[in-house]
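Q: I have 251 residues here and want to know how they pack in 3D. Can you give me a structure?
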Amino acid sequence: MSEYITIAFYNLIRFHYEKSNASHNFRQKNAASYDQKTDLWAAGREALFSFIRLILAELPADARILCVGVGTGTEMIALAQAFPQCQFTAVEPASAMLDICRQKAEENGITSRCTFHEGYLDSLPASDPFDAATCLLVSQFLKEAEERSHFFGQIAQRLRPGGVLINSDLVLGTSPPVHQSLFEVWLRMLGGSGWSEEDIEKMRAAWRLHIAALTPPEIEAIIAAGGFDTPVLFFQTLFIHAWFSKRTAPD
């Protein structure tokens, strides 16, 4: 199993707090323990990151990489270690999460290669095009297809033609019984990684209210509509699927 599964659920709770105007509670109580509650799935996380590194190996040595919804910076640190000349821009709206990301960057000696932006893509200052972007377990919080496509369009506008997008999302189970069976496995994972019953219940509520889990073909169509070539599925575990795609070259 992947640490990323636990991160997805933690993001659900973060989203629940922010939508209920209680983000201060999340920042104070949960941000510091974010990584501790995901360490159990480190092997699965490394499997995903190994594939991401292979996909991005074609980039220039000094590539510029945009990390959208970077959280505490797990994927950014992994990529910075694999690609020691690359530059990174971290975009994250939760200040406490971004603070931890900055701290990790300093501890790993990569601060000089990083730019940190507290906010969203629409407030990110203009810059030269990026060579690649990561967007891991973010877009499922956008419930309308048009809004989601616009989000991917914003990423595409930040990339050079042919720039690579790595995206992962939560997807629907193939049928209601299958979905429910998988969901029970997720719940067992949370209990095994130190989650309280209160947080698990908040996650249940957030899933019902705030998540737009779609089928893989629906997600692929939305990404393509945002300005990308047909996405290629390269990783999946339970509800999490990951794709890579390239920004469509202008005619």
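Q: Anything worth noting?
A: The radius of gyration is 17 Å. The mean pLDDT is 83.
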